[in-house]
C-alpha cells in the first residue's frame, strides 16, 4: 500500500505492531539488505511506539559479533564469512530472544561483544516489562537459527543499487575510501545477501515489507496470512 508520506507509513506499521495481542514482550526483527535503512526505520518505530507508554527495548544485532579472528577466518572479503561467521547466534538467542519469549524470565541482555575493542562483554541483565516491545535491526535476522524466536519480522526492501549508493557514501571513510567501500560491497556484502536470499527468501517470509527506495514516500505491504494481519 502506498502512503502520502513517511509519517503515515510509519504510524500504520507501528499501529499494527502494537495491536499484536501477546501477554509477554513482542520480539520484532527489522531485517533487510545492508544499507537499506533498517536502523533508521527501527529508531523511528521505537519513537512512535514509546509514545504509547510501552517499554521499548531497542538494540541491534551488531552487539553480538564474534571476535575478529573468527569473523575474518575465511578472508576479509568473503561473503560466506559475512553470512556464517560474523555474529554469535547462540548468544543472540540465549541472552536476548529466548528470555523474552513464551518460556523466558524476561531477564535479557542487549549485547555480548564489544566490536570496537574486539572483546566479549558481560552485560548486566535487565528485566523487561510484560508488555515490552523489543525492536532489533540487522542483516540476516530471518536465518533458520533465529527465525523461530521472532514474533514479527519486518523486511526493509530497497534495490541493490540504492543500498550500495547509500552504503558506500556512509561507509567510505570507515572502510578506507570510496573505491575500497565499493569493492567490499561487490565482493562481500552483495554476494552474502544473495546467499541469504537463496536460503531464506526473507522478503517472502516476513510479516510485512517496508519499501524504502523512496525515503519520503515508502510503501508498506502487510502479509494477509502473516502475524500482523
Description:
There is one protein chain. The mean pLDDT is 95. The chain has one domain (6-211): Rossmann fold (3-Layer(aba) Sandwich). It contains nine helices and ten strands. The chain is globular, with a radius of gyration of 17 Å. A six-stranded mixed beta sheet has the order 2-7-1-8-9-10. It starts with 5 loop residues before the first helix and ends in a 7-residue tail after the last strand. By secondary structure, the protein is of the alpha/beta class. Helix 1 (6-18) crosses helix 2, helix 4 crosses helix 8 (178-200) and helix 7 (160-175) packs across helix 8 (178-200). The chain has helices at residues 6-18, 38-50, 68-71, 79-85, 89-97, 144-147, 160-175, 178-200, 202-205, and strands at residues 26-32, 56-60, 107-108, 113-114, 119-120, 126-127, 133-137, 152-157, 208-211, 219-222. The chain is 41% helix and 17% strand. Strand 9 and strand 10 (219-222) form a beta hairpin.
Class of secondary structure makeup: alpha/beta
Low-confidence stretches: none
User: How many distinct helices?
Assistant: 9
> How much of the polypeptide forms β-strand, as a percent range?
15-25%
Kindly report the name of the CATH homologous superfamily. P-loop containing nucleotide triphosphate hydrolases
CATH architecture: 3-Layer(aba) Sandwich
Query: For the record, what CATH class applies?
Result: Alpha Beta
Q: And the CATH topology?
A: Rossmann fold
* Average predicted confidence as pLDDT: 95
DSSP helix fraction = 40-55%
Largest sheet entry:
6 strands, mixed
What coarse outline follows from CA principal-axis ratios?
globular
SSE sequence, one letter per element: HEHEHHHEEEEEHEHHHEE
The domain tally reads 1
Biggest sheet: strands side by side, in what order?
Answer: 2-7-1-8-9-10
Radius of gyration: 17 Å
Number of strands: 10
Amino acid at each position: 500500500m502506498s502512503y502520502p508520506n513517511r509519517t503515515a507509513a510509519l504510524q500504520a506499521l507501528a499501529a499494527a505492531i502494537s495491536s499484536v495481542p501477546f501477554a509477554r514482550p513482542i520480539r520484532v526483527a527489522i531485517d533487510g539488505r545492508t544499507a537499506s535503512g533498517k536502523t533508521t526505520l527501527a529508531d523511528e518505530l521505537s519513537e512512535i511506539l514509546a509514545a504509547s507508554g510501552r517499554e521499548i527495548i531497542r538494540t541491534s544485532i551488531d552487539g553480538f559479533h564474534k571476535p575478529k579472528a573468527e569473523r575474518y577466518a575465511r578472508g576479509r572479503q568473503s561473503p560466506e564469512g559475512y553470512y556464517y561467521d560474523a555474529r554469535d547466534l547462540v548468544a543472540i538467542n540465549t541472552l536476548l530472544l529466548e528470555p523474552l519469549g513464551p518460556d523466558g524470565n524476561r531477564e535479557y541482555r542487549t549485547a555480548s561483544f564489544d566490536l570496537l575493542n574486539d572483546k566479549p562483554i558481560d552485560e548486566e541483565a535487565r528485566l523487561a516489562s510484560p508488555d515490552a516491545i523489543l525492536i532489533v535491526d540487522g542483516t540476516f535476522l530471518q536465518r533458520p537459527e533465529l527465525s523461530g524466536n521472532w514474533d514479527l519480522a519486518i523486511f526493509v526492501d530497497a534495490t541493490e543499487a540504492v543500498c550500495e549508493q547509500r552504503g558506500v557514501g556512509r561507509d567510505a571513510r570507515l572502510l578506507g575510501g570510496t573505491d575500497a567501500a565499493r569493492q567490499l560491497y561487490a565482493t562481500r556484502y552483495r554476494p552474502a545477501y544473495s546467499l541469504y536470499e537463496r536460503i531464506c527468501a526473507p522478503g517472502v517470509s516476513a510479516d510485512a515489507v517496508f519499501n524504502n527506495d523512496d525515503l519520503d514516500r515508502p510503501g508498506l505491504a502487510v502479509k494477509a496470512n502473516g502475524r500482523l494481519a
